Amino acid sequence: MASKFRQRRWALAVPFFTQSSTFSELWPETRRHIVDVLDRGKYSHGHKVVELEEALAAYTGAKHVVGVNSGTDALVLLLRACGLRPGDEVVVPAFSFVASASAVVLAGGRPVFADIEPDGYGIDPAALAAVATERTRFVMPVHLFCQPADMTGVGETARGLGLAVVEDSAEAIGMRYGGTHAGLLGAGGVLSFFPTKTLGALGDAGAVLTDDPVVAETVAALRHHGRFGPTAAHFPAINTTTGAVGVNSKMDDLQAAVLLAKLDRLDADVERRAVLAHRYTELLADVPGVRKLPSVLPRRADVRGVFYVYAIEVDRRDELAAHLAARGVGTETYYPTPLHLQPCFADLGHRPGDFPRAEAACRDALALPLYPDLREADVALVCQGIRDFYRFAEAA
Ligand SMILES: *Cc1c(COP(=O)(O)O)cnc(C)c1O
To answer: Is the Transferase keyword given for this protein (predicted)?
Structure first.
């Protein structure tokens, strides 16, 4: 199909992310939703947002979905709605996006870090048990890259310690654990619709997922200056005045329009991502210097992974990234610094060596391009670049 969106890959041979081709296919449906927004004349926190919330509830099986302005806001408001009190401790894995821990601070709590599992990037349930104190009230497992955390182990440990489970499922749309969608395995979870995410908007947006009506109602109020009542149109009006100090984290209807169009083809996108990931795994299987390829671990429950990120662990990661960049291949470092060594958490007093698995992942992991626009020839080009880097390194 000839398209005005196609073939704008800027200068890079294989950018880390682009959606110019697939978005052209989505444009007629997106346009229909945008025209609907214009016709109704409400551009923020309007009908399109409610339509998206309902569609996401149907997709995930959540009893309640509350649209907000970002995944980060979703985490902050979810923690507040779950009753986090000032000074409460929340155990967070040391390997994650900074928002997992900053959300705890923004909600008034204190992050306590724990190392990740030996074979995956989820929080290690044994490490969780070791760091919890009498002030710990929550654990926040993060479902990173391609699979959910070990929710059987986390759930058992949390029950034993009396902790509530709040999931950072920002990356986890489509992931399931024992048949349940990520984000619905504890008190609640979140989704991020940041553009590069598996379901990405054309800007920032996020949502809270929960089966708990009180949590949903509280988040719905907090996102809109703390106003309960008619503004949270799809919840029963319990109070028309401001009940708590809230924020402005309303979702834009134009983002909801884009997301509704994309949600229709999410399962096809997830399958496409799996095909591309499988191709990477075939082509990288015997490359010296590539030490670890991603795979979805069997866990102790039936798990459906989703390849949001294809991250490999390699020798001389930063040199490899520079070599690929010189060939026009974009990569990303998810995540360059473990949370316990982020300057913004310096007051927690951690040192290098405190969480060795998280530190190793930050040193060695490199995310390769992975998105529905990517062609199999692009995957081959990326893999050839990696192979050449280590072949040259061996010869030198
Ligand atoms: C993307 C992401 C977030 C934050 O979502 P935003 O929508 O960017 O605010 C939080 N946690 C994890 C693990 C993420 O990947």
So the answer is: yes
Q: What are the b/e assignments for 207-244, b being 16+ CB within 10 Å? A: bbbbbbeebbbbbbbbbbebbbbebbeebeeeeeeeee
Residues 6+ apart with CB under 8 A from 317: 333, 363, 364, 365, 366
Q: How many of the other CB atoms lie within 10 Å of CB of 394?
A: 9
Residue 48 annotated in active site = no
Kindly name the residue from 4, 42, 197, 292 that is annotated as catalytic.
197
How buried is residue 176: exposed, middle or buried, by Cβ count under 10 Å (0-12/13-18/19+)? buried
**2-17+266-395 shares its CATH topology with 22-263:** no
Query: Model pTM?
Result: 0.94
- Binding site membership of 372 for ligand 1 (Cβ less than 6 Å): no
Query: 387 CA distance to ligand 1 centroid (A)?
Result: 32
Quick one: fold of 2-17+266-395? Aspartate Aminotransferase, domain 1 (3.90.1150)
- CATH number for the domain whose boundaries are 22-263: 3.40.640.10
Return the exposure string of 257-286: e unless at least 16 CB atoms fall within 10 Å of the residue's CB, then b.
bbbbbbbebbeebbebbeebbebbeebbee
**Digit-coded pLDDT (tens) for 164-204:** 999 999 999 999 999 999 999 999 999 999 999 999 999 99
Q: Which of 77, 106, 168 to mutate to test the pocket of ligand 1 (most atoms within 8 A of CB)?
A: 168
Q: Enumerate the domain spans of the chain.
A: 2-17+266-395, 22-263
98-106 vs 71-81: helix axis angle to the nearest 10? 40
**Which ligand 1 atom is at minimum distance from the Cα of 73?**
9
DSSP codes of every residue in 46-76: SHHHHHHHHHHHHHH--SEEEEES-HHHHHH
Q: 304-343 pLDDT, tens per residue?
A: 999 999 999 999 999 999 999 999 999 999 999 999 999 9
